[in-house]
Amino acid sequence: MKQEKNLMKLFKESLKNKRTWIPNLLTTSRLAGTFIIPSLFFSGNYIGTLLAVVFFSATDFFDGRIARKYNGFSEFGRLLDPIVDKIFAIGLTLAILPKFPLILINLVPETVIAFINSKSFKGNGNPKSSILGKLKTFFLFPTIGLCYLNCAFNTELLNILAVLASLSTLAVQTITAYDYHKKATLNNIKVAPSEENEEKEKSDEKSKEKTNEKHLSKTLTKEEEINLLYEIKDELTKVKPEEKPKIKTIKKSD
Predict the structure, then answer these.
(1) Band of residue 173 on the pLDDT scale cut at 50, 70, 90
(2) Is residue 42 included in any domain, yes or no?
(3) Distance of CA 95 to CAs 80, 110, 196, Å?
(4) Pick the residue with more confidence: 172 or 245?
């Protein structure tokens, strides 16, 4: 619930900057592609399917480019991009899994990466995309397009290319999953300390408060002593009115 509130807060903040609207809309459009591409494919519109794959895959490149060029970055957009990428990739691979079962080797690691990132986010790990993650996406989207092409025309050459592409993408996905897991573990250790560390921090804070109180009491005591000394000094040096010297006033003659 807390994470949902944080996302809503980030979403509202991103709306305040109009420069983020176009990049975020391009990113969100890939969610529509998750339904449009399979619909075109199973209706037999293979050309439309390939064009849609190219278009929606290209949005992953242009949303970041536009955000950089026009200063349209937002924390919401940074979190939205990898989430949409995972939904887009997993949705498209599930659609053609019965026709091209080998794509399962790309579906599994992509699901694992999505799980790692979600666990990191829930644990306040603040997951961030890396160069490996971008490289993985660069391999994955064309691989999915090639698998759709192979399912549409089913030639020996396309089948070989699709198999090679799936295996190559699997290698990149495996390395990326390991990298994300390593970073998520380190981030969770830093951000979410153990209960023992929390108790230790609380005890340290209490001891600091006690030390400050003691120091304050000592300071007040010294001030009181100083004030007392000044009062004694004033009493000792005080001149009684009858002992004050008489000062004669001289009148000026006219």
Answers:
(1) very high
(2) yes
(3) 23, 15, 48
(4) 172
Establish how many alpha carbons lie within 13 A of residue 94's alpha carbon, considering only the half-sphere containing its beta carbon: 10
Question: How many CB atoms within 10 Å of residue 37?
Answer: 28
Q: How many CB atoms lie within 10 A of CB 231?
A: 10
Eight-state DSSP code of residue 45 = -
Cβ atoms < 10 Å from Cβ of 253: 4
Cα–Cα separations (whole angstroms), residue 81 to 23, 47, 134, 155, 185: 10, 27, 11, 34, 22
Burial of 69 (0-12, 13-18, 19+ CB in 10 A): exposed
Residue 231, domain member (yes or no): no
Kindly tell me if the per-residue pLDDT of 193 is higher than 60: no
Count Cα atoms within 13 angstroms, Cβ side, for 170.
13
Do the domain assignments include residue 156?
yes
Number of domains in the chain: 1
The answer to whether residue 126 is domain-embedded is yes
Higher per-residue pLDDT: 9 or 163: 163
For residue 15, give every residue at least 6 positions away whose Cβ sits within 8 Å of its Cβ, in sequence order, or none: 21
CATH number of the domain encompassing residue 160: 1.20.120
Name the residue range of residue 51's domain: 2-189
